[in-house]
Design goal:
Blueprint (H helix, E strand, L loop, with lengths): L3 E3 L8 H12 L4 E5 L2 E5 L5 H31 L5 H5 L2 E2 L10 E5 L2 E7 L4 E9 L6 H6 L8 E8 L8 E6 H10 L1 H6 L1 E3 L13 E5 L2 H7 L2 H8 L1 H7 L3 E7 L9 E7 L10 H4 L1 H11 L4 H68 L9
Helix pairs in contact: 1-2, 8-9
Length: about 375
């Protein structure tokens, strides 16, 4: 099976050809002369522009291949035969043929993977966003603002396979930012301060944003705490974890989505994130089977009804504002047309009056008939 395919030209020239051409340009003008019975090689100095060109070309191909190596290492570990995705999804890649590529390359630093064919969900889209290793200027900028390679899994759940579930987990600062910036969390959820009574909970550096403590407690199971989010497990897995965000009220084309965001290890240590990747099929099944209690559901129903009413009033307000704006624009156009017409009528009237005055003031000439 083909592992990767780009969205542009599939064949690229040999990078060494470019490098050789750049070096030859930089070292042009080499002259050899005879001096005191010996040949000396006089090599002109390379100017700054030529040095930058050589560095840029070398970095472009080196960085490009490094990003491809990381993406291929991930696909080899998690999306080939007998891997996590192979065991949990019936269709891997962007098509249904045997020669379908596993990864779609959307740029030198963006790779995508798609899987479908599993109950409770329409499919999962994984997006790998790498450091811009191919861009020399970006690499220099990263010395001041460091970046990490990340992978985001977005699972679109079936409409009938996700109850009123809204929960997010991230480091405390990031969780507070998510609660303020994500529209669904802002409307329905809040940061849970104390841990549920008598229950193991997430590591101290993490915070949970949820619509209710019941949902949070049911979603963050003991198995997840032991493997990833618990105090002891997070000491090892924390460097790869960024966030979880499950919502049945997400703004966009799909409302019911499970989102996972992790840091990508380097190509030689991809197995370090196995437990994190395993969360994807685990939560698809957990959320797909989950049902709220009647008490919690009555509260979530009330919250969604209120939100729907507010959205309707907001839509009505936008429509009313649009209607008033159109009326104002129409009125303005009519006034401008009337003003233009009035000016034309006034001009003709003034011209007629001026002609009349000219005739009145002109000397009268009498004609004598013989």
């Amino acid at each position: 099976m083909e592992l990767i395919r780009g969205n542009g030209i599939l064949t690229t020239p040999n990078p060494f050809t470019f490098c050789l051409a750049a070096i030859l340009m930089a070292w042009r003008g080499r002259r050899i002369r005879k001096n005191r019975g010996r040949f000396e090689s006089i090599l002109p100095s390379i100017d700054k522009g030529e040095c930058f060109l050589i560095c840029f070309v070398l970095n472009y191909f080196t960085g490009k291949r490094q990003n491809e190596a990381i993406a291929l290492a991930w696909a080899t570990k998690f999306a080939t035969r007998d891997s996590i995705f192979d065991k949990n999804f019936s269709l891997l890649g962007t098509g249904d043929g045997k020669d379908t590529p596993l990864l779609l390359k959307e740029g030198q630093d963006v790779f995508k993977f798609y899987a479908s064919g599993r109950r409770f969900c329409q499919g999962v889209l994984a997006t790998m966003e790498m450091r811009a290793r191919h861009d020399l200027l970006s690499k220099l900028l990263e010395l001041v603002f460091p970046r990490k390679d990340t992978i985001t899994f977005e699972v679109v759940m079936n409409e009938d396979a996700m109850d009123h579930v809204m929960v997010a987990v991230a480091r405390k600062k990031a969780a507070k930012a998510m609660q303020k910036e994500e529209r669904d969390l802002q409307k329905f959820a809040s940061v849970l301060a104390p841990a549920p009574a008598g229950k193991k909970w997430v590591a101290d550096e993490l915070a949970v944003v949820a619509e209710s403590k019941e949902v949070a407690g049911d979603m963050i199971t003991e198995a997840v705490l032991d493997q990833v989010l618990g105090e002891k497990a997070f000491e090892k897995m924390g460097k790869w974890f960024i966030s979880l965000h499950f919502s049945d009220q997400l703004a966009g084309s799909y409302k019911k989505v499970l989102s996972f965001k992790f840091v990508l290890p380097d190509a030689n240590n991809m197995a370090d994130m196995t437990k994190l990747v395993a969360l994807v099929p685990f939560y698809i099944d957990l959320v797909g089977r989950y049902k709220l209690s009647s008490h919690a559901r009555s509260k979530t129903d009330a919250a969604r009804t209120k939100a729907a009413q507010e959205a309707f009033r907001e839509l009505q307000g936008v429509r009313q504002e649009t209607l008033l704006r159109k009326k104002a624009e129409k009125k303005k156009l009519m006034e401008e047309a009337e003003a233009k017409l009035s000016a034309e009528v006034l001009r003709k009237k003034e011209e007629k009056e001026r002609n009349r005055q000219m005739k009145k003031g002109a000397p009268k000439v009498k004609m004598l008939r013989s």
